[in-house]
Amino acid sequence: MALSLGMAVGSAQTVCAEPAVHTVTIDSMQYSPPTLTVKVGETVVWVNRDPFPHTVTAQTGDFDSKGIAPGESWQFKPTKKGKFPYFCRFHPTMKGTLRVE
Question: Is residue 27 a contact partner of residue 91, using CB atoms and an 8 Å limit?
Fold first, then answer.
């Protein structure tokens, strides 16, 4: 009995990966990580684990989360490259940096 093994020859497939999602945790009055580097079009999610509200407010005015309640989150998808230092309007000593490539 002869056994025939067939080989499929196909064209190369292009796989479009979903843009990455990055998380910044707000806990103990700190953004963690304090500096995050992402690509244009990727999503950044800030999750508030503190028992009081915080904001994510760019010094450049490019983004502002308004208040993020305890246990809630806010997301942002950058559309341009640059370095965006940010802070919490309620607690100005809290600072972070978003770098977009």
Answer: no
Task: Assess whether the previous peptide bond of 33 is cis (omega < 30° from 0).
Answer: yes
- Strand residues in the chain grouped as ranges (E): 21-27, 30-32, 35-38, 43-48, 57-58, 73-76, 82-87, 95-100
Residue with tokens 């607690």: 91
Give how far Cα 93 sits from Cα of 69, 74, 86, Å. Answer: 18, 20, 11
Handedness of CA 46, 99, 85, 18 (dihedral sign): negative
The helix or strand, by DSSP H or E, that contains position 64, with its residue range, turns out to be: none
pTM of the model: 0.83
Arithmetic mean of pLDDT, 83-93? 98
